[in-house]
Structure formats: C-alpha cells, structure tokens
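Input (structure):
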C-alpha cells in the first residue's frame, strides 16, 4: 500500500478521534465483547444471508460459513483487546482482512451496509444490557477504523494492479482518474 498499514492506522485513529479513553473502555469490556461475539456473528450472518448476492458468496465453498463464524468472533473480540494496543500488529491484521475481501470480490456496496448493520446490532445489544454510551461510542469508532482499512484495500489493490499491468507512473494514473471523474 502507498502508506504502511501502521501509518494508515495512525491517520484513521486521528481522523476518527479514537482516544486513549476509548481504548481503555474497550479493554475493560473485553470479556463482554467475547461473550456477545457469537451472538453478533449469528446476527451478522443472518443479515448477509437475506441478500441473494451475499448469500451466494457465503455458501460458495464447503466450510466457508464455519470459518467465517470463527474469524468474525475473533475479529469482534480484537476490537476490544486492540491486539497490541491498536498498533502495528492490529493494523497489519486489518489490512489482511481488507485484502481477503478484495480477493473474494466483495465490494464497498456490500461491506459498508454490512458494517452499518454490525454497529446497529451492537447498539441494540448494548441498550438491552444497559451498557454505557461511552462503550457504544468507542465501538462505533473502532468499527469505522476497521471499515476504512477494508475500503482502502480496494483502492490500493486496484491502483497497484493497473500500475503493474500498464507500467504507468502513480502520477499519471492519478491524473487519468481525475480527468475521468471530471468527464462523468
Ligand atoms: C464489514 C463487515 C465485515 C467484517 C468485519 C468481516 C470480517 C471478516 C474476517 C475477519 C474475515 C477473515 C479474513 C482472513 O482470512 O484473514 C472475513 C473473510 C470473509 N468474509 Fe467478511 N467481513 C465483513 C463483510 C463481509 C461481507 C459483506 C461479506 C459478503 C458475503 C463477507 C464475506 C466473507 C468471506 C466469503 C470471507 C472468506 C471466508 C473464507 O473462505 O475463509 N464479509 N471477513
């Protein structure tokens, strides 16, 4: 990627204003996160299953749903633990998750509403259990950081592929994109 994963992390943390207070709140509630993760995974896959396109992707290969459920639970819990205090290892892990989705052909039109569904579901659960608004704020912020990684992966992979195939410079490619967008 043009930026390293940890540089990207630094930028989004700043833009989302993910503070050390948010991080403390998440860490304190890491056990809660682990406890509710399977329930969140069920709700998430029920949501994806209602969409014909996404349901086809989910069921495209043997064992995929099972793997996904496990990786979702781990992903959800990592938002609370921060792996290495939301540092380099966290950023690398999120970058790889982004790449995994690009490889399978899951696009922003799928991922953005899906993340909105997760935030909404988490909100319902937090309210039902009488959890604090602070936890909801911190979780929404980290979900947006993770979303930024998945989204950025599309841009990085697409532009790297074009540059590799054509031998164009990054500057030329950027100019062509800007000109193309102006013509639309
Ligand atoms: C925004 C929400 C999403 C999150 C947090 C998420 C999370 C994850 C994670 C953690 C992985 C494992 C990546 C790895 O191998 O390192 C994964 C893979 C995958 N995700 Fe997502 N995902 C999201 C959206 C979606 C959507 C919208 C679909 C559409 C069907 C989808 C389908 C898949 C599939 C098919 C895999 C690969 C499973 C396999 O064969 O191992 N995900 N996802």
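Output (sequence):
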């Amino acid at each position: 990627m043009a930026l390293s994963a940890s540089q990207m992390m630094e930028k989004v943390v700043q833009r989302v204003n993910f503070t050390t207070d948010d991080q403390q709140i998440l860490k304190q509630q890491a056990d809660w996160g682990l406890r509710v993760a399977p329930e969140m995974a069920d709700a998430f896959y029920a949501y994806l299953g209602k969409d014909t396109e996404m349901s086809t992707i989910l069921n495209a290969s043997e064992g995929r749903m099972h793997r996904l459920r496990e990786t979702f639970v781990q992903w959800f819990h990592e938002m609370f633990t921060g792996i290495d205090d939301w540092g380099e290892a966290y950023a690398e892990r999120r970058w790889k998750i982004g790449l995994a989705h690009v490889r399978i052909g899951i696009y922003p039109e799928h991922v953005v509403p899906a993340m909105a569904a997760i935030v909404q579901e988490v909100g319902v659960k937090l309210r039902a259990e009488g959890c604090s608004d602070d936890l909801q704020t911190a979780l929404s912020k980290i979900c947006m950081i993770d979303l930024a990684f998945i989204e950025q992966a599309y841009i990085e992979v697409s532009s790297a592929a074009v540059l590799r195939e054509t031998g164009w410079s990054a500057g030329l490619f950027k100019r062509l994109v800007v000109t193309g967008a102006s013509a639309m």
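Notes: The chain has a mean pLDDT of 94. The CA atoms of residues 41 and 69 lie 6 Å apart.
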